[in-house]
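Fold it.
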Amino acid sequence: MIQRYCTYLIFVLFCVPTISQNMQILYDFDQLPQTLLLNPGSQVDYDKHFGVPLLSNIYVGFGSSNKDITYNSVVSGSDGLGDVLNNMYALGLNEDDVFIFNQQIELFNIGLRLKDPTYYLSFGMYQQIEAFSAYAPDVANLFVNGNDQDGDGIPEAGQVFKTDQLNSVGSLVGVFHVGINKKVNEKFTAGLRLKILSGSLGIESNSNQGDYYLGINSSNTPYIHNYENMNTTFNSSGILNYVDLTDDLGETDELISDLFFTSGSMGLALDLGFTYKVTDEITITGSALDLGMLKFNHKLTQIEFEDERIPSEEWYNPTEGDEIDYWQELFVEGLLPIETSPTSYSQLRSPKLNGSVRYNMRRLVKQDKSAFRDVKANLKSEYLISSFGMQVYTEFRPNTALWAVTGFYSREITRYLNAKISYTVDRFSPANIGLGFSVHVKSFNFYAAVDNLLTLPNIKNSNYQSFQGGMNFIF
């Protein structure tokens, strides 16, 4: 028997938009070790570091490009996934709407300066979830209303529903990484990072095409369900059994072990970056992240929709609130043109580009013998730094690109406290104010960052939020 939640999964991915991983507050901020993950060519003036295991970097970001999609408008008061889908459908979304979820936990992060002091080596491992989906209006319309789009009880023959809007991708992976940072001269620093990926779970459906429409039959059965030019595929790894689409999701310990290269699903990716000091005051940076792919090889299920003409006595007519059960029953009875197989697939990582320009200002402060540490050891201790500038970010998702432009002001408030405030414009918000701070007590560092501050007092009515924090020892 097909598990109900497996049916939920397919419809959620196909019909529900599922925030980009733009860590604009942390980027190029206070020389934290985690900035090397955003730009392996960041300036490094400390000699070694290690992150507090499992606590050195915790990040979660979630949201929708449509401001009407919030907890209160979609989830609150609903009774199951069917209500959630109908609440979302009632908001009248279009194919430009996208939803994304990202989460990351750093298991460990270590770095040290090599014998040649111009080189800094860093390595570590983190667990990551990335999920992206674009809204597919045609599929959603068919799912909710069937062939009777106007609700008059008469099916509309000839109305075409297209599958090319289907665009979803997601993964749960473990990432082991090693990077090298090189101070070429006083002006230029470059770096690269190699990532080895281990897949635990994966889903993907993009670059689809195909048409469905209801036809009138001249023979005994009054209707023909026409599926034409179908090249529509859903791939998964670690989730479904391809024979009967029953649940093949492992126990928690299996999912965790698959993050450590036991599943056989592996990949490679590369990060590149640089920092260039144009003058003592002006600095530009840039990075290209996640250039690579991951091949899924375990617990594989490929679902393919085929060209078919299905004579039927009935037209598609789901009842309100019972849509999931209706389509599930059609699938169980073999009335949908679907074939399944255990086919491996390769998933391209989502390349990300970062760039920034900043202007640094120094101010003179009194000397003291504070117990708090000035991490920026290459600067004279009697000076504190303030900076302002602009950052740009682009993330390439299947068939679309996500972008962000950020203005920021960063200030060393004291020798032990640094803060950064940002204003970001992107597809998720035209007025995203973020705040981050970094505290140094001797060699111990604690940092935290939060986006979309204006919505925090009423977070259930927010369409986007992200949080990040961690702890390190920096020497």
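The helical segments are 4-15, 35-38, 71-75, 81-89, 137-145, 252-257, 323-332.
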